[in-house]
Amino acid sequence: MTNVRILAKQSAILTLLAALLALATLPACNPVANIQKRESLNQLEAATNTYRKLMRWGHFDQAAQYLRAHGETPLAKPDLEDMARFKVTSYTVADQLIADTRTDARVTAYVEFYNIDTGVTNSVRDEQLWWYDDETRRWYLGSPMLDFAANAD
Question: Is the pTM of this model over 0.90?
Answer without folding.
Answer: no
